[in-house]
Amino acid sequence: MAKKRLLAVIITAAIIIGIAAVLIVTINSESKAQEITAEQATEFVNKDLDSLATTKALKEIAGKNDITVNSIEYGDKKDIILNCTVTTLDAHGAISPYYDSFMSTDIKKSTGTMFKSALDFKIEFEDKIIELLESADTKTADLKLSLYDTKDGLILFRTNDVINAVYGGTVDIENDINEKKTAIVTDENGKKTEIALDSSNLKKGFIQCIGIDEMKDEPDTSTPLVKAWNSLKKDFHKNFIEKDRWKAILTGVWFTISLTILALLLGIIIGFIVALIRCTYLKTTKHGIILKILNAISQVYLTVIRGTPVVVQIMIIFFVIFLPSGLKNKFVASVICFGLNSGAYVAEIVRGGIMSIDNGQMEAGRSLGFNYFQTMYHIIFPQAFKAVLPALGNEFIVLLKETSVAFYIGLGDLMYAGNSIRAATYSAFMPLVTVALIYLVMVIGLSKLVGLLERRLRNSER
After folding, report:
1. What is the pLDDT of residue 113?
2. How far apart are CA 99 and CA 179, in angstroms?
3. Do residue 154 and residue 108 come from a single domain?
4. CB 353 within 8 A of CB 387
5. With 50 as the cut, is the pLDDT of residue 111 above it?
6. What is residue 367's predicted lDDT score, i.e. its pLDDT?
7. d(CA 218, CA 388)
8. In this structure, is residue 26 part of a structural domain?
């Protein structure tokens, strides 16, 4: 036995050491980039940056610019630093004096109004921008570029500074336009008027002519394992840390828990009342008119609620009942919807539990002097509750998960928070998986509470 334990320890230690060795080798793998010549770097950089020219104006600039790599340095992150000289058109100097002129033409052609869309502006003025670029001066400047040797090959890190230098100040033009609040308009009589730029069509049109998106993050040259970890960290930061988006998740959790608790209480009250009505009708032979009406209402309620999806119910309650009545409280509408929905299932669960109790229990209670309702309260309900507790616990768990459809009416619950983060970051994995994990944790916690209650009831029986 001792030899087997020793062997198991040795094998476990060997596995751990092997994994650690693989990780160390992986993390500390080659960090130097491949060597290239200045001619190869020049050809690669020019081709890469020319590929960014997707509009006529940018192609005009790209046709006149030239980048020469003078020297090369190698970093310790598989990066290659290129010391370059760039010659390009002075786009900013050529276009910036005519900002107000473009706006003046815009006002004249549109009879005092802005263009309907940015595309209209681009179509109208792109050729005029090209005319200005054709007569623009050239300028020369020194520039540092960074190439990264990744698994996918060499990647040029294109920041706003790089784009601005290579394309003659187009980023400066974009910043000028975005910051511009007013323009001087000259009418046909030569009168100058300062107007506010209320519409963003001019700005968007300019940007569509000369705008290029920067590469915000450095290319990742690390090993696949480290790269995956870095990607997770980046995704986490983007989805939760940036703009304090984690607060939306926290608020969503609070709304979900509050909604579940209130709907649960309402569902229990409705469920026990409906179950009592149904059981009274089934267990007694003489039915008064009131009991018949209440039983009929209960049957209709159970049929409708259990026969329609909860998402349809919540939309009917809010959009068909609440809004036309002037009520806009989404939380109250959600509580009522989920309370009514849960009440129907609780009613049938409790009814089944009560009907499973032997009729002798009712007779014993009546023989002790209890009336019908006292017998139900002191004798029947306690026994039925123990029998149906697992089913009730399952219904409560289902209710917690069903509250996620409240986001269909715009309630800021947990699902709504996750979906809003996904829409803002265009990242589906992190927010949706986080929402799923939070629901899982809440369900596990609720299951533990139900389990504790079951054990207490079993102990009380002993």
Report:
1. 47
2. 12
3. yes
4. yes
5. no
6. 79
7. 59
8. no
Q: Which residues contact 448 (CB under 8 A, 6 or more apart)?
A: none
Is the pLDDT score of 307 beyond 80? yes
Q: Is residue 23 in a domain?
A: no
User: What pLDDT is recorded for position 107?
Assistant: 47
Nearest-angstrom CA–CA distance, 164 and 419 = 36
Q: Which of 43, 54, 51, 348 is nearest to 207 (CA)?
A: 54
| Residue 84 φ then ψ, to 5° | -120, 165
Q: What's the domain range around 77?
A: 38-217
Nearest to 170, CA basis, from 283, 65, 93 = 93
Same domain membership, residue 337 and residue 249: yes
- Same domain for 85 and 158: yes
**CA separation for the pair 298, 308 (Å, rounded):** 16
Quote the tokens at residue 239: 């989805």
Whether 324 and 203 share a structural domain: no
Question: At 70, is the secondary structure helix, strand, or coil?
Answer: strand
437 confidence band (pLDDT: 50, 70, 90): very high
Domain check: are 204 and 288 in the same one?
no
Domain count, the chain: 2
Q: What's the mean pLDDT when you consider all of the chain? A: 83
Write the CB contacts of 89 (distance below 8 Å, at least 6 apart in sequence): 60, 61, 64, 65, 133, 136, 137, 138, 139, 168
Q: 88, 90, 120: which is closest to 105 by C-alpha? A: 120
Q: Residue 102 in contact with residue 192, Cβ under 8 Å?
A: no
Question: 310 and 170, same structural domain?
Answer: no
Residues 318 and 194 in one domain: no
- Which residue is associated with the tokens 């090209």? 130
| Same domain flag for 120 and 60 | yes
pTM score above 0.70: no
User: Which residues have C-beta within 8 Å of that of residue 348, sequence separation ≥ 6?
Assistant: 275, 302, 306
